[in-house]
Design brief:
The complex is a heterodimer of chains A (270) and B (109). Chain A has 270 residues and is of the alpha+beta class. Chain A is built from 6 helices and 11 strands. Chain B is globular, with a radius of gyration of 13 Å. Classes of the chains: A alpha+beta (270), B alpha+beta (109).
């Protein structure tokens, strides 16, 4: 039909019109081909692009190697939970002179040592200076940064494996003149209860694809890329009753929106 | 308070919403569902009459692990530091005149 219309209006430009119409027909045919045959379209992309592009696929790109572990790992019975919260009257307040992060670590270690709470399985997981940033929203630039405290965070290993989750951590926040402005500890006393069979990382990734992770998340984003695989133990929210510490696979990477992702998947086979 | 995943990624855009509102609390990462978070926050703000950002710090650090990033934004530095929940202590005045500055911090829990 297009061709007919062009011929009617043709005259001297007939050849040019015919060429143009032919080009349009070819383009139209290509569009129809891709609409009718989506599988042929998909092969034009790499697997990784296909997974990220759709947002519907539950495929996960794995860029990491799982640690070698045996068929079983120990699990632990929780005997007791220690929970301490101590703080000065006002924690988030401008302070003029803070210790350096190195000095803060020394102060925090001494503080925990005096209280007999620095156990051998504890390790420093993070040190940072908490500040109030005053920002100009038009320029997006930080105009002023007011020091508040230096925070030293501790986590715990169990038989050489990290404990993840909200339990089993300590926070020591240091203000002026080595004052401890906030101390928080949640630590469960555990005893070895036996051995459990462990699923391999591939089986755990399959569970992850089906949304089977230890902590229920508010996010609708799905795991897209795994860049780090570890095994550890999960410790629940302080105050929550937890009978056992069992092994979990720990996956770190990106979700399908490109944001950082950490997921824990139950590693026991039962 | 917006207890949803990754909502406060762009702090600067959210800060522009603060004209008469004093602050926004939330997360810039994914966050597990938790009733403990709100229990802990309201325990501090209502039972202990703590300032809002102090309570948000305690509640987030004591409920989640370091994979979760909490955010607090306020229209002014004083609101960030001294505001309490209404009826639970002092509240700083609304910013007047309204300028382009705001106060914020984020932390791994």
């Amino acid at each position: 039909m297009i061709l007919c219309m062009h011929i009617i209006h043709g005259g001297a430009n007939l050849n040019k019109m015919v060429s143009l119409t032919f080009l349009m027909l070819v383009l139209g045919a290509c569009v129809a081909y891709f609409v009718i045959d989506p599988e042929s379209n998909a092969v034009a992309f790499s697997d990784a692009e296909k997974m990220k592009g759709s947002g519907l696929s539950n495929e996960i790109v794995v860029n990491a190697q799982a640690p070698e572990i045996g068929k079983t790992l120990p699990y632990y019975k929780v005997m007791n939970e220690d929970k301490i919260h101590e703080s000065v009257d006002k924690v988030v307040i401008p302070r003029e002179y803070l210790p350096s992060e190195e000095e803060a670590v020394k102060t925090a270690n001494e503080f925990l040592g005096k209280r007999n709470t620095l156990s051998d399985d504890a390790y420093i997981s993070n040190v940072e200076t908490f500040t109030i940033k005053t920002v100009d929203e038009n320029k997006g630039s930080v105009e002023k940064e007011t020091p508040v405290f230096v925070r030293v965070s501790y986590n715990r290993n169990l038989d050489g494996y990290p404990i993840v989750g909200p339990g089993d951590s300590m926070e020591v926040c240091i203000g002026e003149k080595e004052e401890i402005v906030y101390f928080f500890k949640t630590w469960r006393e555990v005893e070895k209860a036996g051995e459990v069979s462990i699923i391999d990382a591939n089986a755990a990734i399959e569970k992850l694809k089906h949304g089977d992770s230890v902590q229920p998340l508010k996010s609708l984003n799905k795991p897209a890329e795994i860049n780090e695989i570890k095994i550890g133990y999960y410790s629940d929210t302080p105050g929550e009753k937890q009978e056992f510490y069992k092994p979990v696979w720990i996956f770190k990477g990106k979700d399908d929106a490109g944001s950082n992702m950490t997921r824990y998947v139950n590693a026991t086979s039962e | 308070m917006i207890a949803s995943c990754e909502v406060l990624h762009d702090v600067n855009e959210w800060a522009k919403a603060l004209k008469y509102g004093h602050g926004i609390l939330g997360f810039s990462s994914t966050v597990p569902t938790s009733t403990a978070l709100l229990d802990r926050f309201f325990e501090e703000t209502i039972n202990n009459d703590d300032e809002i950002v102090d309570a948000w710090l305690f509640a987030t650090v004591e409920t989640f692990d370091s994979s979760v990033t909490a955010v607090a934004i306020a229209d002014t530095d004083d609101q960030f530091v001294y505001d309490h929940l209404n009826g639970q202590g002092t509240m700083e005045p609304n910013e007047s005149p309204d300028d382009s500055l705001y106060a914020y911090n984020s932390w791994g829990c």
